[in-house]
Amino acid sequence: MKRISLRVTPARTERESDQVKSPTRNKPYATRTNLPETLDLNSVKRNNDPPVRTKPRIFGLTEAPIYHPTPEQFKDPLQYIESIRPEAEQYGIIKIVPPASYKPPFSLNTEKFRFRTRIQKLNSMEGGTRANVNYLEQVQKFHRLFGHPISRIPQLDKRPIDLYNLKKEVEKYGGYQIVNEKKKWAEIGRGMGYNRRECTSLSNGLKSAYSRIVLPYEDWLEKTKAKIILSDNANHDVNDSADSDQLACAVCHSSERKDELLECDDCERGYHMSCLDPPLKTAPKDEWYCYKCLIASGNDYGFEDGGEYSLSEFQKVCEDFKVKWFTDETRTVKHATDVSEEDCENEFWRLVDDPHVECEVEYGADLHSTQHGSAFPSMERDNKYVDPWNLNMIPILPQSLFTHIKSDISGMMVPWLYVGMCFSAFCWHNEDHYTYSINYMHWGETKTWYGIPGDDTGKFEQTMRDAVPELFEQQPNLLFQLVTMLSPGRLLKEKVRVFAVDQRPGEFVVTFPKAYHSGFNHGFNFCEAVNFAPPDWVDLGLECAKRYKEYKRHPCFSHDELLVNTFKMELTNDNARWLKPALEEMCAREMNARASTREKHPALLQACHEDDVEYQCDFCHCYTHLSHVSCSCAEKVVVCLDHVEELCGCPVESKRLMLRYSDQDLDDMVTQVKAADKAQENW
């Protein structure tokens, strides 16, 4: 299928690829303001009639369950979700189609609503493809750095040779020398998907590409990588004696010999040409990157900011893009809705998986409803419209444990808005604190979701690490960053269960605790989502809190505070059943930590405190709701009991173990919750 030239450039050089634009980024904003400011809701899809599928879903994916509650079942959202949970959580995601009478009004002011997008490069989203693109960028920078730039990637079978996969295949066979000696180039070609009958120059072509382009870089990398310090430490810093206003060499720290001092176009550090290893004899004519930045190409990946739009402006952008994208010499598309969902899904994964085809789209994602407003009726403005499925209500329903958190977690308590266009996507992730999420589509084109059951989380994460070890080496916390896709087909091959579901207007999608999910939009649409946490989530919430502590990730709230506040505010016989084991675990964990701390630091003073401040460990960032250790040298800096040694170098006599609850207080909590649970059993 032929592609519009603005979007696709096979085998593009790095300099050329910088010219690829998002649908409107290269147009002055003023040229886009002659459109109606108010979106005509009659111009967007409002019904959820599914099209007839004409072919199996890509990768042979199994559909996630679709539930149709009766009007009676639909009255209580959390109770209904709990009733289907035993079956539904086995899929990670499910869809709920409300009764036909459920039609909440779209309450957003479409005239005043404006939002900013983020730009997504599809071939940089898939993990393997991004590693591929990063490697190609590094190789191109290397050859340009040493005076022999790559003008064109060699081709075989009328397509560019995949240099990254060529490198990986050669590694599988033991390296270049073994492949050469044993004449394995044809086997490597078959491993890369080439057919020797159709490609007579296969062995010579692969050998030539490897020896001319890949091998020089790999040899240099092996010799140089050990010498490169990837962190900003003293060896890379300029000597304090040098004038801070002058560029100095990061190797010898001298600012003299300015005529041979190069400045890296990325990190802006200086290097004498003679201090480099190997040294450069002449200054590069074009941009120049130090060796550290060359090797680190691509490790700062994230989504860039896009344009600012009204809904009507973005609708026009979305419509024009989709029509142009799917129109070629064999097919004319007049309207975005003329493209089938199957064609759109297949094309999305083609673009994500191909490192040589570039496509940029924009996504109005993670728009906070406190700033932009919710599309559901406001409870303050319209008390007549009482709807428990209103996403503003879900987190504060009586069964939701979020009501017991005093700290500000507005990011999880209020809905977020999402304005999609064709191919805009959300990458693999699970929800903060392993909570549930619920997403409602107000109107627009289909959103396709992929879900992985929580039980397969470990297999999924290991598959990700095995698939793109280079990305995890650069970014160990990659799984927390919501910037990486991996093909469902690849996951299925590794025995990871993946399910799919298509969401249309008026439908809810629920994701279950710990379940990874991802997906993409087929076109212009408007969705809203929020998190919630019923009692069955508690154990997984604790598991996630421990995971955050291990990875030194900032949590959104204190899991222990939630349990203690539930105990204080709502210790009923019903709550006691799930609260008892959670409180017992919390108190046992805390008492063990206190005993260990007292044994290691017998001179440590201790005191009780009643501060309202929710302290966080300065080392691992976990909340220290029950206790912390501080020092007189910096009383606002605290650590949890696991990291007392990381606090400071002061003598232990200057430090204090601060307890919000005494040992006896913790024992009393357990005693009371046991009594309440016993009363429930007797009743």
Automatic annotation (TrEMBL):
Q: Does the keyword rRNA-binding apply?
A: no
> Which InterPro entries is this protein grouped with?
ARID_dom, ARID_dom_sf, JmjC_dom, JmjN, KDM5_C-hel, Zinc_finger_PHD-type_CS, Znf_C5HC2, Znf_FYVE_PHD
Swiss-Prot/TrEMBL cofactor(s): Fe(2+)
Instruction: For this UniProt record, give its keywords in alphabetical order, as a comma-separated list.
Output: Iron, Metal-binding, Nucleus, Oxidoreductase, Zinc, Zinc-finger
In what residue span(s) does the JmjC domain sit? 383-549
According to its UniProt entry, the protein's GO biological process terms are:
regulation of DNA-templated transcription
**GO CC list:** chromatin; nucleus
Q: Where in the cell is it found?
A: Nucleus
Ranges for the ARID domain? 129-222
Reactions catalysed according to its record: N(6),N(6),N(6)-trimethyl-L-lysyl(4)-[histone H3] + 3 2-oxoglutarate + 3 O2 = L-lysyl(4)-[histone H3] + 3 formaldehyde + 3 succinate + 3 CO2
EC number annotated for this UniProt entry: 1.14.11.67
Stretches of Polar residues bias are at 20-45
According to its UniProt record, this protein's enzyme class is: oxidoreductase
Every copy of the PHD-type domain together lies at 246-296
Q: Which GO terms describe its molecular function?
A: DNA binding; histone H3K4me/H3K4me2/H3K4me3 demethylase activity; zinc ion binding
Q: Where is this region: Disordered?
A: 1-55
**Where is the JmjN domain positioned along the sequence?**
64-105
The similarity comment for this entry is: Belongs to the JARID1 histone demethylase family.
Please report the name of this protein according to its UniProt entry. [histone H3]-trimethyl-L-lysine(4) demethylase
